[in-house]
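User: Batch of two.

Assistant: Item 1 of 2:
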Amino acid sequence: MEDLKNVQIRADIADLQRFGYVQQLFRDMGGFSNFAISFSIISILTGAVTLYGYGYGMAGPAINSIGWPLVTIFTLLVAAGMAELASAIPTSGALYHWATALGGRGWGWFTAWFNLLGQFTITAGIDFGAATFLAPLLGIKESWGNFLVLYGILLLSHALLNHFGIRLVARLNDISAIYHIIGVAILISALLIFGPKQSVAHIFQFGFTTGKYPYWLAFMLGLLQAQWTYTGYDASAHITEETVNPRVKAAWGVYLSVLVSAAVGYLMLFAVTMAAKDNAAVAAAANPFIYIIENALGGAAGRATLWVVVIAMWFCGLSSVTSNSRMIYAFARDGGMPGAKIWSGISSRFMTPVAAIWLSAVVAFLSAVYSGGYSVIVSISTIALYVSYGIPLFLKLRAVRAGIWKPENNGPWSLGKWSTAVNATALVWIVFICVLFVIPPNQLTGYTILGALILLIIYYLASVRRWFKGPSFIQNS
């Protein structure tokens, strides 16, 4: 008798065929594995840690106690809107397919490219950030060149693992989610038991900044710490074709990855900030997070705890390459990018999109070389990803208002009557952060995003619109 899992897989394959695609990727991931990959990419031990000094320098302790929950509220609304669409359209194209279904192939094509830009640079931000932590732990001189070498080694390890087996990567993602929880528990426990403890009033302190901006603006700019941490959770949607029962499990993967990260991350930031003895000394340190941990726990214990953090960053980068390569594969499968036949290729032996995996690693490396600064890398990835998140949410609102999208078009994970209000509020927040994170000191981000948009418009009008047919479900409709 066929077991329930195989019955569900057969149903999922039939569901995928209704969108015009055959099953090529290995479908074996359960709900926890799907959640784990987004949770690992969000990685509170990566984003909230590597940008800890940036946020602290901008707005002091309040950026963690007040800024984190503020960003969390609005990000949960974005995630809810995305989860609803993941349930309705469970394909690896994810945001690109959602935008195409709701607005046409042009909207989908632009969404795909912004998502790719965001995915390339989020991988860069994750692994380059890990390199900046790894260098001092290994006793290597902290220089841009040394960071790039370590960064390249980290990327290579992630590409190799993704190349040679989704089974192993899936298991490592499961381990990663558990490891992150245990790692945060170790960090919090060590700080609360052995570290110094400031008053609660200190943690909620407003007014401290090392920047040249008025405090209210510095606080807003410091929100990049939390907002960049909350990126990459679209990964759960990108691996729907490898997930069993994705209409339910991928949707929950998108939403729960943000919710769980929010709670655990706040506890971690609370404990770390409580151990910060002196605002000025923390902000002036080469790496404020390392400074706090080593001063709070002592040399040996502090370094051991920091190794726990760096290993979590490695897991995060592994998941990011997985997500990025699946988006490349899905877009190339539809002929949406130059060299599509190459990037959509699947290894018959490993059942992984090998060319897409290596493309994601190479472009991520070049992204870090181009940016020349860490806050620029992360702000580019934040804005590019949230633009790609926002386009299908906007199109969903428009389609609902026009009567094109009806309740029966939703999947089993649905916001019901709250859908319009949630999506509208999420869009307002996306517009706000897209303006906020392109002003100095991140003006290169604005130039990059604007330049990318102009080039994409020229390319689309001059060439793409004449040959790009869009996803199979559009071509066959």
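Item 2 of 2:
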Amino acid sequence: MTKNLRMTRTITPDRPAAAPEAPPPDRGLRRRLRHWAAAAPSYAWLTAAGLTLFAVVELALVPGSAITAFGVVVCTASLALRATWPAVGFLTVGAALLSFATDGNMAYATIAGSLIGCFTLGRHRVQHPAILVLAGSLAALTVNLVHIDRWARDGSPGLPALQGTDRFSLGLYAETLVLTVMILGAVSTGDAVRAREETRHTRAAAQSRLLEMERRQAAEAERAAIARELHDMIAHSVSVIAVRAESATYTTPDLSPPARDAFQEIAGTARSSMAELRRLLGVLRTGDDTSRAPLTAPQPSLAGLDELLGQHRTVGGTAELRISGEQVPLPSSWELSAYRIVQEALTNTRRHAPGAHSVVELHYGPRLLSVRVSDDGPGPDPSGSTGRAGHGLVGMAERASLLGGALTTGRGPGGGFLVEAELPW
């Protein structure tokens, strides 16, 4: 931590802009239709508009009954909603069959519209394809029976008068066969397109999972490499410090009691650092195939602040702890972050203001923990020179930001240096 800062700096997490309020739900039929129209892709509207225009021209050239005209227009115009409401295909096919049953001649626009409607039902699998084909076949048979009844009652040009037994002639049911084949082809094509898209999406999802797995394995390998480097570079040196400090109390018999206590304190601090380092290496080695499980230890919490301040006093500093408000149990992440902020602030005090008196204050407010660490050292440099910037301030700010809080650092009201964090929960 750099002590020579000119002014107070506040680091707060980026907060997303407030989302606009959602409009109230629309329950009117007219507004729902308007929503469907806005959400429908342009190709659905273009198809519906083109076929409807073609149907109007066809009806003008080959006039039909009012029911026929209504069925043709409904068959083509309903295609505009097929992308947002696939079940409209039932209306499209029904209107086409009604027009054919009424007039006896199927317009070209009706043929195209009904095929697109069957394709839509199969493409979105509104029902199982077999059910769709069966329902279409029964509807086609019904239309065919209506035509046969009309031929028997009114007669038909080119066909002889039908007798009672002639109604069962297979030649009269050619319409059913043709319509069933058309429905089967359109529904099967839509279902095949749906299956192909599902296969493509499944393949893309599998590829994404594979890439994610490869990235995770690469990250684990990198963490394992970092753990090995930390172990080789730091763990050996810290262990040597612990052993040398411990052995000095036995190999040097003429040590004074204060010096002996100092060596014991150095050894204890080194052992504590080794435990923290083992825990960190265990985290970094996640997924690494190690022959031994890393040693584990409980995470530091605010309950260990007395011990932390005791360690600070043993190296020449003075410190006191003040706690206000109603103490409540906090989540482990908040406990750990608050502990690390206090630890880093005291470390910076020893580095930049040796011998200064530090005050650690914890205030438990409503859904808020305030952490305040101040000292009576020289404080930031009035000249404004910041010196060499370290990672202490950045680390404390990141810890506060991850919890949705804020960190303030700079000159205290009465001089010295101040670190203040607000951690809401």
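The radius of gyration is 41 Å.
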